[in-house]
Write a structure and sequence with these properties.
With 301 residues, the chain is an alpha/beta fold. It has one domain: TIM Barrel, CATH 3.20.20.30.
Length: 301
Amino acid sequence: MKFGLHLTVSPRHYREIASLAEEVGFDTIYVPEHLVLPSEMPALYPYSDDGLPRLSGLGDITPSTPCYDPWAQLGFVAACTSTVRLATAVAVVPLYHPLFLARSLATLDRLSGGRVTLGGGVGWLKSEFDWAGRSFHDRGRRTDVIIDLLRRFWAEDVVEHHDEHFDLGPLQFNPKPLQKPGIPIELGGSSPAALRRVGRLGDGWLEFGARDLDEVVTQLAVVDEERRRAERTELPFEVTSWLPVIDDVDRVRRAEDAGIDRIATSPTVANGTPLTPDVFRTWAFALRDRMSSLESSGLTS
């Protein structure tokens, strides 16, 4: 079992907390993404019972929640670390033109020494799309095209593509990422369409919102069936879950048996309470002790 950290802290603490996370043994650091938030949040978030969006461990996303640029965030974290992987959870893929997204990721991959994973999704907040001048109703189809184009930009010498979404090339895209054949693309989502997309196109699944491990198993079966149909079962694939399953060895063992490869987590603090380095340090060292006991049980990598 691997462990990821959802970096939902003030940027002024990134250096200390990212370095400590790497020391403790987290294998991936995740940052969230929104472009902009409305002055009144609609209750449309698909991963909570009441429809209100939340960040792992830190409570509600409110209109005043800062929306930092994820590539700048991860670029800074890359400079503060040397081995931990850098990922989004999740970037709103259809808000981007594929050339801009491909360039940001390839640049970050080069600067970090090949440590980047794109965690992507189709988005749920329509107002973001409206204000960015992007279509909302076809965002799923556009995401499929963008994923294909990213992989082509990162691997092919000359790319040409023409459809209702993008009119490109012939062009040469550089720089190529250090990772070959390209940067891993892991996808979030739990709707039937999202799960099929994960299986058809993803290098991994970012699982959000499941109520228990049984629900994860049911959803993962949809992903696995689509992977078989797409003839992708021989390709590398990882499942990352935000389920709170690190309370004890038995729960982690059951998560591993369910097909989860990584548990992403962060300290839980009271809503509105800042997460300081001291709070994180206490939590992280306690978690390291727990991870050590899991390793002795043969459950961590």
